[in-house]
Design brief:
With 281 residues, the protein is mainly alpha-helical. Helices cover 58% and strands 2% of the residues. A hairpin with a 2-residue loop joins strand 1 and strand 2.
Length: 281
Amino acid sequence: MTELYAWCTETLRDHSLYALEVFSKCFEDRLAKILASRLCLTHKALPILKALGRTALALHDIGKAHSEYQRLMRAKGYCINPRRKCSNCKYAPTYPFHEVISAYVFWQVYLELRRHLLASELEYEVLDSGDLAMNLGKMFTLAIIQHHQAMRAVSEITSRQPPQVKKFGKWSLRDALSLLEGLLEKSLEPLSPNIASSLARDIKTSLPIQYASWGEIVSSLKTALLAGLLDPRLKLYSILSGPLYICDNLSAGKHRPKAPPRRIIEEAVKSYSCLASFAET
């Protein structure tokens, strides 16, 4: 299996799993309870809300599995300039809008997850209601899109095309399927550890191997997200995007050459004591 990288010396698996660990220990329970309260759901919805939160964290950078981004990595498994901070390195790989592809992957995973669960004998009331179920998936998808640029208008993804994206062509998810299955198995544990493995395998098998071009991905997201965007429930995506940003940065800080922590991370550590141990590693 080819190793995929999130950054020079940092594997995509390590980055995703560490961010997921921070989330599950510091944010998961509180976030699920807040969403359940805001959406007027019972405690029975908590497992699916926790699983969706974990899945969003686990897949927030899956767009970096794109073959072109992997090609841009100047080194696989070692750094060509280990003494220089990543932020100052001219060889640092860049992939703007990778979060858009990550959001697209999550949306496809969510649709398959809902289909599999509704076909099972398990009861997930939150997935039975069409509008609520679709809005729930959209909330987490929007959080992934916004986890780097919180002030970005959603419509911006349909009107801008970063120069690097123009030559990416169509993307095959084939090289990332093993990673995807492992991340999903970990993410779906709140539903039931007994079904997480088989469910992750079924979702992986049912996902399309050949993905669309950048334009087709954006068009698909536009159709999925902009419909009903004025629904006030969708604004709840911001409850997840903040923790996602924090977990993403703490994971990067652990695996990449050290740089001074961002002020927002310092403030978050002051407010959430459980983050202190992750910030110190």
